[in-house]
Structure formats: structure tokens, C-alpha cells
């Protein structure tokens, strides 16, 4: 029989509540997490994880005596993720726009350009084009309301992103067709590419 120390190495310590551990994980993820993935992360059986998720959903919905929270645990694309409740979207959007009006970083602008020209596009495809991790940048763009989740691929579970009307308002255009063409800005390679790193 495995000792308690060996059991703890395979997941969360026995004294930590599984629902609280899942809650902590779900607070930091950017993509919906499968039950199997969550079970692996905490080292507990899938059945226990499903029960803990149901407990969290009921807790956030105020079904167990507490208040109904401003966020909810929602199953999307075969996985679970914490979202702002739909009726509070406008409040959060207004807060983000009024409290955080700072300019976008170069990384955010580059990521936004990739999304605008290639939409709908997954985070993985964006990262592949930019050759860097784009998780925090995508979070920033979502928070600013410049991009939105278009759909979730039913086979891969990858969320695809597209730009919002707010971006067009900010750019002063009526349609994405008004974006400048990329090809005139690209080097045609006639001088070679030896200096490109």
C-alpha cells in the first residue's frame, strides 16, 4: 500500500479540498480545461473532479446558501472555465475601458494585426505566426474588448478569435476590407534574405 507521502506526490495533498484546488487552477487558465486534464492536475479520480465541479457551479450560482457570484463556471467546448456572468459584461467592459485606457504594447499591436488579417484564428496559430507565447497578450486584447471569442473548434477545443466592432471604431473604419493591404509592405526578396535573422 502506498504511503501518504507517495499519494501526495501524485496530486494535491490530502488535506487540501479538491474543489478549492480546482478553483485555484480555473482562476488562472485561459482555455477551457477538460475534466480529465483537471483530474490529472490534482491527481484525483475523474468522478471526484466531476463532483467538485458540480459543487463549484452550485456555489457560484448561490444554490448552497451563499450569494450568486458575478462570475460563473461554464462548460464550453468540452472543458470548464470561469467567465463573467453575461448580465455583467457591460459593467466589466465599461470598467476596463475607463480604468485602463493605456496604449497597447508593440506585442499587443502585432497580435491584434495577426488576428485582424487572419480571423478567425486560434491562439496556437497566432503563436506560430508570431513565434512567441501570446497568452497574456490575447487576455489583454479580450479585456480591452478589441477581440472576442468567435467559436470553439469541436475537434480540438481551440478557441478562435476575431476582432470586434470596437476595434473598427477605434481605427475609424467601417469594415475590415478598409485595412491596408499587406503585400506592398513586404520585402519581395529581390535583395536576398541574408540579413534577416
Describe the 3D structure.
By secondary structure, the protein is of the alpha+beta class. It is about 45% helix and about 15% strand. The protein has nine helices and five strands, in the order ααααββααβααββα. The strands form two sheets. Strands 3-5-4 form a three-stranded antiparallel beta sheet. It has a two-stranded antiparallel ribbon with strand order 1-2. A hairpin with a 2-residue loop joins strand 1 and strand 2. Helix 2 (about 20-30) packs across helix 4 and helix 3 packs across helix 4. It starts with a helix and ends in a 26-residue tail after the last helix.
Short description:
This protein is α+β, with helices and mostly antiparallel strands and 197 residues long.
Question: SSE order in H/E notation?
Answer: HHHHEEHHEHHEEH
Q: Describe the largest sheet.
A: 3 strands, antiparallel
- How many DSSP helices? 9
Category from helices, strands and their pairing: alpha+beta
- What Rg, in angstroms, do the CA atoms define? 21 Å
Task: Give the helix/strand layout.
Elements: H1 4-9, H2 18-28, H3 35-42, H4 46-60, E1 71-76, E2 79-84, H5 89-99, H6 106-118, E3 121-122, H7 123-130, H8 135-143, E4 147-152, E5 159-163, H9 165-171
Antiparallel strand pairs: 1-2, 3-5, 4-5
Helix pairs in contact: 2-4, 3-4, 6-8
Salient structural properties:
3-stranded antiparallel β-sheet, alpha+beta, disordered C terminus, disordered N terminus, two-stranded antiparallel ribbon
Amino acid at each position: 500500500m502506498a504511503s501518504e507521502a507517495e499519494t501526495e506526490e501524485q496530486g494535491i495533498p490530502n488535506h487540501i479540498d479538491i474543489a478549492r484546488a480546482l478553483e485555484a487552477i480555473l482562476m488562472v487558465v485561459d482555455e477551457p480545461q477538460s475534466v480529465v486534464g483537471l483530474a490529472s492536475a490534482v491527481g484525483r479520480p475523474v468522478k471526484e473532479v466531476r463532483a467538485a465541479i458540480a459543487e463549484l457551479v452550485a456555489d457560484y450560482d448561490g444554490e448552497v446558501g451563499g450569494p450568486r457570484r458575478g462570475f460563473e463556471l461554464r462548460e464550453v467546448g468540452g472543458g470548464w472555465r470561469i467567465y463573467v456572468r453575461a448580465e455583467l459584461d457591460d459593467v466589466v467592459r465599461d470598467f476596463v475601458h475607463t480604468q485602463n485606457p493605456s496604449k497597447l504594447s508593440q506585442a499587443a499591436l502585432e497580435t491584434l494585426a495577426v488576428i485582424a488579417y487572419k480571423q478567425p484564428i486560434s491562439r496556437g496559430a497566432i503563436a506560430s505566426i508570431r513565434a512567441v507565447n501570446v497568452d497574456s497578450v490575447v487576455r489583454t486584447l479580450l479585456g480591452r474588448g478589441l477581440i472576442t471569442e468567435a467559436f470553439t473548434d469541436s475537434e480540438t477545443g481551440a478557441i478562435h478569435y476575431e476582432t470586434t466592432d470596437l476595434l473598427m471604431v477605434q481605427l475609424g473604419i467601417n469594415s475590415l476590407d478598409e485595412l491596408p493591404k499587406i503585400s506592398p509592405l513586404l520585402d519581395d526578396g529581390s535583395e536576398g534574405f541574408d540579413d534577416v535573422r
